[in-house]
Amino acid sequence: MSRRAAIKGLTAVAAGMGSGLFSQSAAVAAPGVLPETLNHTRTFGVGVRSVPVTSTVPTHLSVSGSAGRLRTRTAKGWGPWEPLSGCAGGDRQGQYDAAALVAMPSDTVEYQLDLPESARVSEMNVVNGRAIGTLSSPGGRVLIGSAERDCNYYSRKAWGADENLRFRENGEERYPLAYFPVQTITVHHSAMKASADVMADIRAIYYDHTITLDYGDIGYHLLIDSSGNVYEGRYSGVDPTPVFGGPTANDRPQMANGAHVGGFNAGNVGICVLGDFTSTVPTPQARRSLVLVLSALTEVCGLDPKGRTNYINPISGSTKSVDTISGHRDWLATECPGNAFYPFLAEIREEIARSR
């Protein structure tokens, strides 16, 4: 079967513009089943807009520009207004697209947006679509290059990446693979309050990055949840391990180019800790897994966890001097990975260095 034939029937979802997507019958996918992502895109102007939910409740909203505020109404009444926030990423040089991604209460009957500027709103449902595949089981260890670490690991097939989304209708890959030696590692937060279904949150990030923001794939190489589970992000090739692929360079593995820091991606591994750490910090379990993953990456890539890197983008020639283990805000004007979390990166660097 051709790639075009394989993705036939998913085109309307990938386009994200069909007004009738949420009219499909809703039936929560059985455990171990991958549901098709449903999406309906709207454009709203400045001001307050009330949107009743008339059929399948969106599991997540993506609001372009990441400015303004949102509140939802359930049978209990209106919840509080919450600020919208997101961080800029992008797969192309100089692209700094941003969107706020919000997990919606499952019993939402209406939502309101208060927008300071026009915005595109994607209503996603990553739970109620028809079954399009099965999920694999997670593993108890993650292999990063030649370094193994003891933490629960979910491959793309385990959390439910619909690989068809990475391809256009004509079969072309939206974000073709390219490999580069690792120069630096950047830590992010998702800036989204996690829902009770972590894999649904990751599928929403995946769809948002791949289709809504047109990055072509999920931007991060690895993601970590509050329980310390590690998830494979950016597709890196047919091998079963994350981050790396292609030929080695000077006996070091090369990373698949991601889309997490607009203009500074090539040679820059992106790790996202799920949650909003503006005023709170990651759980001890998440912190432990972050340290394990960072120690493995610095080990196999020959990086000094306490060092500085004079980064040179091998595609554009853009340069930046950053800590070898940096935060997103070290690259661009953003609060990521959160005001409460960012100061702890120095402590994490020291811990990794001491463990060697």
Automatic annotation (TrEMBL):
Domain Peptidoglycan recognition protein family residue range list: 151-298
Family matches, as Gene3D superfamilies: Peptidoglycan recognition protein-like
Keyword entries, A-Z: Signal
Superkingdom classification of source: Bacteria
Keyword presence, Signal: yes
Alphabetical list of Pfam families matching this protein: Amidase_2
Cross-referenced SUPFAM superfamilies: N-acetylmuramoyl-L-alanine amidase-like
Alphabetized PROSITE patterns for the sequence: TAT
N-terminal signal peptide: 1-29
Family statement: Belongs to the N-acetylmuramoyl-L-alanine amidase 2 family.
Entry-linked PANTHER family: PEPTIDOGLYCAN RECOGNITION PROTEIN, PEPTIDOGLYCAN-RECOGNITION PROTEIN LC-RELATED
Name of protein: Peptidoglycan recognition protein family domain-containing protein
Organism of derivation: Lentzea flava
